[in-house]
Design brief:
The structure is a single chain. The protein folds into two domains: 150 residues, Glycogen Phosphorylase B (Rossmann fold), CATH 3.40.50; 44 residues. Helix 1 runs parallel beside helix 2. By secondary structure, the chain is mainly alpha-helical. The strands form two sheets. Strands 3-4-5 form a three-stranded parallel β-sheet, with helices on both faces. It contains nine helices and five strands, in the order αβαβαβαβαβαααα. It starts with 5 loop residues before the first helix and ends with a helix. Strand 1, helix 2 and strand 2 form a beta-alpha-beta unit.
């Protein structure tokens, strides 16, 4: 899909290759735009440096993250940014577009780098910053991993979800005209479950 911004990465590739001749670009996933991307790579003369994997499962994805020097998400639109969290959890430095959920997840210069969405020069410069400065990549990698462990772990998320349920339960009990006997039984059951586990 064009929204993933892979065409922007391909446009950035010649600039990256001018400074890092050994760079390789692995494009994971498949979709209706794949043939157009392959044609774009051929037109730019970089087909020999770009590898289209097609569909990959989670295990292959995680291995690719471990092998990569940088994970790049140049999305023009990305509602949640979970892909960046996956890379951060795999201890791979991330470069993301400042769009949607990606923009909310990554703190530029602290746990990743952000580029201007749709801007291939901005993307190339940020990727090159990680490739040319291993110490920067290491700092981003460790900060990102620590943040994911601290803020995005399932226990933390479950605790926040339980807190929302508790808040709804308390609010429901305080509004008698909404509180039917059936609702009461459901909310009491949920409350007991949450009290036991949290």
């Amino acid at each position: 899909m064009r929204e993933k911004g892979v065409q922007v990465l391909l446009d950035a590739a010649p600039e990256i290759l001018a400074h890092q001749q050994g760079a390789k670009f692995v494009i994971a996933g498949k979709g209706p735009f794949e043939e157009a991307l392959k044609k774009q790579a051929a037109f730019l003369g970089i087909s020999n440096r770009v590898y289209f994997t097609g569909y990959i499962d989670d295990e292959v994805r995680n291995n690719l993250y471990h092998w990569a020097d940088v994970a790049v998400f140049p999305s023009l639109y990305e509602p949640f940014g979970i892909v960046a969290l996956e890379a951060m959890a795999a201890r791979t430095p991330v470069v993301v577009a400042n769009s949607g959920g990606l923009d909310e997840i990554v703190n530029h210069g602290l746990d990743g780098l952000k580029t201007y969405s749709g801007n291939s020069h901005s993307l190339a410069q940020n990727i090159l910053a990680v490739l040319k400065k291993p110490a920067l990549g290491e700092r981003l990698r460790e900060n990102a991993f620590n943040r994911v462990q601290r803020e995005f772990n399932w226990l933390e998320i479950a605790g926040e979800t339980a807190a929302v349920y508790r808040e709804v339960w308390e609010a429901n009990r305080s509004v008698p005209w909404l509180y039917t006997e059936r609702q009461g039984k459901i909310f009491d059951r949920v409350y007991r479950l949450l009290s036991r586990n949290g």
